Amino acid sequence: MRATLASARRARAEGHRPAAGRLTKGVADLFRTEDAAEGVASFLERRPAEFQGR
Questions:
Q1: Which of 3, 1, 49 is nearest to 26 (CA)?
Q2: Among 7, 12, 29, 49, which residue's CB has the most CB atoms within a 10 Å radius?
Q3: How confident is the model at residue 27 (pLDDT cuts 50, 70, 90)?
Q4: Distance (Å, rounded) from C-alpha 47 to C-alpha 39?
Q5: Exposed, middle or buried: residue 47 (CB in 10 Å: 0-12, 13-18, 19+)?
Q6: In angstroms, what is the C-alpha Rg of the chain?
Q7: Sign (positive or negative) of CA dihedral 32, 35, 36, 40
Q8: What is the DSSP letter of 45?
Q9: What is the rounded distance in angstroms from the CA atom of residue 4 to the CA atom of residue 17?
Q10: Tens of pLDDT along 2-20?
Q11: How would you classify residue 47: left for phi > 0, otherwise alpha for psi between -120 and 50, otherwise beta?
Q12: Is there a contact between 40 and 24 (Cβ–Cβ < 8 Å)?
């Protein structure tokens, strides 16, 4: 959620193109979090996810 809001604010302040250019790195950073791994594991194991905010 924080990354989405930051991207929206960046788009308003800097324009859509600069915000989109930085979005790719931001998404890649999110996929390396513990919560991302938990999301994939819970999907594969067919169980509710237990996100920790990390």
A1: 3
A2: 7
A3: confident
A4: 10
A5: exposed
A6: 14
A7: positive
A8: T
A9: 15
A10: 778 888 898 999 888 888 8
A11: beta
A12: no
